[in-house]
Design a protein that fits this description.
The protein is α/β, with parallel strands linked by helices and 608 residues long. The chain contains 22 helices and 16 strands. The chain has a domain of 196 residues: Rossmann fold, CATH 3.40.50. The protein is elongated, with a radius of gyration of 45 Å.
């Protein structure tokens, strides 16, 4: 993503601490807006005139080998996203991933090639190895105002899936070849050496399921989109059945939680679509294992014909009728995501688990400390969106009356804010003064039923106790006339207060906007009045100048007349003066018939 600040722009190169940087900038109050897609380049951001004049830009880089390892681990955990790199180098082995990259671009370093669209167009390039200090330098150079204390916010960790981290290894010779390709990049950003932790031979990273031959039936059925499994199946004979790809991170986290269960116990797996974890638990030595099919196609005989482990299939309605505490582990894969009243399955888990039994479940999360649950609209535009999100405090309060202890988050994942609910999410985040990019997520949670709990639990008594102590956000008024607990009242008031605080903030912002508009209008009116006064003064000056010009013209005309008369007088002063008593009288010209003597006589007479 590109984060637009008052004086600069931050560009996020993947796997370089960008989420932490974005959060720090938000905490500093510097974020004007965030541009998508997540890893937008400067060229993409500047196209179309989407940005104003922001002359300072910055980004961060990382040691080439550590960056490549982080990239591979991320894609392995969350699924290979469509990209040029994935198309040429996707692999379940880190060493194969590096080998494919070197082969695909023999004249380029894979790290520098990926980062060139950013580092070649940024004013400042920092390093992940000194991320906090370099971020402070970048903000200071850009002239941004911030509190240096925000730079001490804890960083966001790499993947917590141990199996993937341990698999990010390759032979020293291959790592050295990568570093050689990155010579120019290393000199520019002062990188050298091969991290010792990355040298070695990696073990296979995927969980392998035992299979039996079915002549390719399962593969053909899945290819015809008749099964649509949520998760990826890797069989011991090498065949791979790919899932939808939307839940790969959850698959890793559930796998880790199931692998950490005590072996040999009686286990139940409840899933809407996919029996994967039931067969995985059976292959790990749990038994008996029951798969509760919440959807018809999840019970397809094709699964049983292809998978070798023994798993019992039970209808969802039959599972909910059971009350006997007979199981050592219950795994709820997607219960809290698909039903508005999904908490009932947690209640049922408390009934069927033995004392000390383990509950593993996925929960859509809100990063809010208060016991809050948010249920989004069931509008068709929100299809695919989880119906409800829960704060972990809400989940703790939900489980405590049921006898569960030691709530532990096996894995938490953030969820991007996008789509029709984006405005609602931003409003909720604003009411709690939280970063919208960190508000939503998903967690795989593990809890243990109190070992001292009685093996015989009365369903009705437990239900009433649970209804009394359940957080108020789920039901704001009792269903059966039972009095509300003080905790429920406080929680309800907190929720109402949050809504009122948000409404007040919105109203105050609206008033501030109107006041700013009024001030701008007054300033504009004053400016117009000044312009009008200035125009009047200019008109008055122009009139005075016109009057003066007319006077000057009149004076000039008089002077011209006087001057013309004087010139005329001067010109006539040299003419001959005639006697006043003998005026000149014009006489006809002499005719040809008169003699010359007469003419001369007349001339003489005139001269006399």
């Amino acid at each position: 993503m590109a984060v637009v600040l008052p004086n600069s722009i931050f560009y996020h190169i993947g796997r370089t601490g960008g989420h932490w940087v974005s959060h720090v900038l938000w905490q500093s109050g510097l974020v004007e807006r965030r541009l998508t897609p997540l890893h937008i380049t400067p060229a993409q951001a500047m196209s179309g005139g989407r940005l104003g004049d922001k002359p300072f830009t910055f980004c961060f880089v990382r040691h080439p080998l550590k960056w490549l390892a982080s990239y591979w681990m991320h894609e392995m955990e969350f699924g290979w996203s469509p990209s040029e790199t994935a198309s040429v180098a996707a692999s379940d082995r880190f060493d194969e991933f590096l080998t494919k990259l070197l082969k695909a671009w023999p004249d380029e370093g894979p790290c520098s090639r990926a980062m060139a669209p950013y580092v070649d167009h940024c004013s400042f390039v920092g390093r992940v190895e000194s991320l906090s200090d370099d971020l402070g330098r970048a903000l200071a150079l850009a002239g941004e105002t911030f509190d240096p204390a925000v730079l001490s916010i804890p960083p966001i960790n790499e993947t917590s899936i141990a199996r993937i981290r341990e698999a990010a290894k390759a032979p020293a010779e291959l790592l050295a070849e990568v570093m050689k390709r990155e010579d120019e990049f290393n000199v520019r950003f002062q990188y050298s050496g091969i991290p010792e932790i990355m040298v070695g031979e990696a073990e296979p990273v995927r969980s392998i399921l035992r299979g039996k031959s079915d002549g390719g039936t399962l593969r053909h059925i899945n290819g015809a989109a008749l099964l649509n499994p949520e998760f990826d199946y890797y069989f011991d004979d090498g065949e791979v059945i790919k899932g939808t790809g939307r839940h790969q991170a959850a698959q890793w986290a559930f796998s880790q939680a199931i692998e950490e269960l005590p072996p040999g116990g009686d286990s139940v797996v409840v899933s809407e679509h996919d029996p994967y974890f039931a067969y995985m638990a059976a292959d790990l030595g749990h038994g008996p294992v029951t798969y509760v099919q919440a959807h018809e196609h999840a019970a397809s005989p094709a699964w049983r014909d292809r998978l070798a482990a023994e798993v019992e299939y039970v209808a969802y309605q039959d599972f909910l009728r059971g009350e006997k505490p007979a199981h050592d582990a219950v795994v709820l894969c997607d219960s809290l995501e698909i039903s508005v009243a999904a908490e009932v399955e947690l209640l049922h888990a408390a009934l069927v688990l033995k004392p000390g039994g383990v509950l593993v479940f996925g929960v859509p999360t809100l990063t809010v400390e208060a016991p809050i649950k948010v249920t989004w609209s069931g509008d068709p535009a929100n299809r695919g969106r989880k119906l409800s999100y829960y704060s972990l405090e809400y989940v703790r309060n939900l489980l405590a009356p049921l006898g569960f202890r030691d709530l532990e988050v096996v894995r938490s994942m953030s969820e991007a804010v996008a789509g029709p609910l984006e405005k609602q999410v931003e409003d909720l985040a604003a009411s709690f003064k939280l970063d919208p990019d960190r508000l939503l997520g998903k967690a795989i949670v593990r809890a243990r039923l109190d070992p001292t709990a009685s093996e015989v639990i009365d369903r009705e008594a437990l239900l009433k106790l649970w209804l009394l102590r359940r957080p108020a956000e789920f039901v704001t008024s009792p269903l059966d006339g039972l009095p509300k607990a003080a905790q429920a009242t406080i929680a309800m008031l907190r929720s109402a207060l949050a809504r009122e605080q948000f409404a007040r903030m919105a109203a105050e912002q609206g008033m501030a906007d109107r006041e700013r508009e009024l001030i701008e209008t007054r300033v504009n009116m004053a400016a117009l009045a000044n312009d009008a006064n200035y125009s009047r003064e200019q008109i008055s000056i122009a009139r005075r100048q016109s009057s003066a010009a007319e006077q000057q013209l009149s004076t000039l005309q008089g002077q011209i007349e006087l001057l013309g008369l004087k010139v005329l007088q001067d010109e006539t002063a040299d003419w001959p003066q005639l006697p006043e008593h003998d005026p000149v009288v014009a006489t006809p010209a002499p005719s040809q018939a008169e003699p010359l003597d007469e003419t001369q006589a007349q001339v003489s007479e005139i001269e006399e």
